[in-house]
Amino acid sequence: MWFLQVVATIVILVLVFALGLSQGEAQERERIEKQRRLEAMGGKNSSNKYF
């Protein structure tokens, strides 16, 4: 019985790890997209007071 608990725990840990990786990749893509959008709108060194 303890073997099934160990297997279930390992499966859950792998799922949590995989979901965390996919979430991190999504956040990184979103950060890059925001940076591209900011640069397309005038960049970080412009005199626009809103940036």
Automatic annotation (TrEMBL):
Protein name: Uncharacterized protein
Native source organism of the sequence: Leuconostoc falkenbergense
